[in-house]
Amino acid sequence: MAGTTGRHRRPQPAGTGTTLAKAAGVTALGVSIPVLAAGTGQAAASTTASAATATATATWDKVAVCESGGDWTADTGNGAYGGLQISTATWDAYGGAHFAATPNRATEAEQIGIAQRVLQEQGPGAWPVCSVRTGLTRTNGAAAPARATTQPKQPAKKQPAPAKKAGAAGGTTREHTVRPGDTLSGVAQELAVPGGWEPLYQQNRGTIGGNPNLIRPGEHLYWRTGGTAAPRHTAPTPVTNRNHPSPVAQAAADWALQQVAAHTAGWYDRCDNFVARAYGRSSSGWTYAIDNWNGTPSSMKGPASDLTPPVGALVFWRMPDQPYGHVAIVVGDDGQIVTTNYPDDGDYVGETTVAHLTAQWGGTYLGWAWPDFL
Questions:
Q1: Which one of 195, 213, 311, 322 is separated from 204 by 20 to 30 angstroms, measured CA to CA?
Q2: Within the chain, which residue ranges are assigned CATH 1.10.530.10?
Q3: Which CATH class, in words, describes the domain spanning 155-232?
Q4: pTM of the model
C-alpha cells in the first residue's frame, strides 16, 4: 500500500522489531532465565515458569491484535484504552492506577498484568468477542489473583434482586447495580440473564449509551426473566428483514453520525475498526476490511446492485490502489453512509453516499452485509 493513500486498513501491531528480551525467550513480566549454577530442580522450575509466561504473553499479544490492532497506546475516545481495551473503571478497580492514569500510558507488561487479574475474576468473557477468536482461557492467559497492595476492595457479589414487577408478556423484571470492574458480559453470565449480554444491553441502552463495552459503577441495569428471550444475534439478515433495521443497527448508525458531528479524530487507516466501534465492539476480529467481507456468510450479504442498503448495514469496496479494501456504515435510507478518510485522506470521518464514494475513489463496490461479529 502506498505510504500516503492508506485509507482502508486497520492499525497494525505496534513496533516492528523484536526486542532482545523476547528474542531470548524472556518477557517484560519479570521472569528470568534459569541460572546454570542453580540446582537441576530449580532450573527446571524456572524454565517451566519462563515457558508459561512466554505462552501467556503470546496469547495476550493475539488478544491485543484483535482488540486494538496491537496498538498498546490506543486511545480512540471510546472509553477503553491500550492494547487490550480496558476501561478506566476496570483499570482502577484492579490496581492499574499504581502504574499509570490510563492503560494506554502503561507498558505492555503492566497492561497484561492488570488483564490477568481481570481474567482471574471475570474470566475470558471480559473480552467477549476476542477471547473466542483467540482462544483465551484462564490457563493460557496466566490468570492471576489481585494483589492486596494495589487492588481496591471489591463489594461482595450481588445476587439478583427480588422480582420487581410482572410484565404484560409474563416474567419478571430484575435489577443489578454495576460494581467496579463489571462488564456487561460478566454481569449477564454471573446472573444468568436470559439470552446473554445482547438483550441486557438492548433493555438498558438508555442507561449505558452507545457503547456496550462501557458500563459505569453505580448504574442500575434491569432485565426480564420468565418471558420470551430475545434472540442472541440482533442484526437481521437481508433475507428476513431488508427494510426494518433492528434497534442495535439504528444505534450503530446514530453513533457514526455523532462522530461526524463531533469531528472525532483518530480514524486514519481504521475503517474496519470504525464500523466495529459503531456496534460497540473494540474490533471486528478481522485484520482488514476485505477480510471482513470475505469472512461474512453469504446469507448476511446484499448485492452490489443495491446502492441504498438498510440503515446499519456495512458496505464494502475493493480498492484499485491497495489490497486491504474499504468498509463504511449506512446511516440513511437513500444510501447515505459515514466513512473514514472523508472528505479528504485524514484522521476524520464524514458523510456521503455509496454511489458518490464509489465514483470518487474508483473502487469496486462489492455490496453490503450485516456485521457477523455480534
A1: 311
A2: 42-154
A3: alpha beta
A4: 0.42
